[in-house]
Amino acid sequence: MAWPAEQIPAAAAAAAAAAAAAAAAAAAAAAAAAAVQGSVHVWVSQQQQQQQQQQQQQQQQQQQQQQQQQQQQQQDGPGVGVTG
Prior knowledge:
Elements: H1 8-37, H2 40-75
Helix pairs in contact: 1-2
């Protein structure tokens, strides 16, 4: 799907907000699980998993942004099928 140039930052911001909300939910779940289990080791391992998930989300966002930019460049390329 092609994005107009002015919509790319908005789409990226929306994706970042969604990732932040997901990270907050994951943090709340990890905190609840740690409270139930009462284990520092489990809490630490959950924090590490959460960090990995955040890194994966950030990588996915970067890939999406790159794809959007490439699509925009293709759209802005030389005109095709010009009638004269």
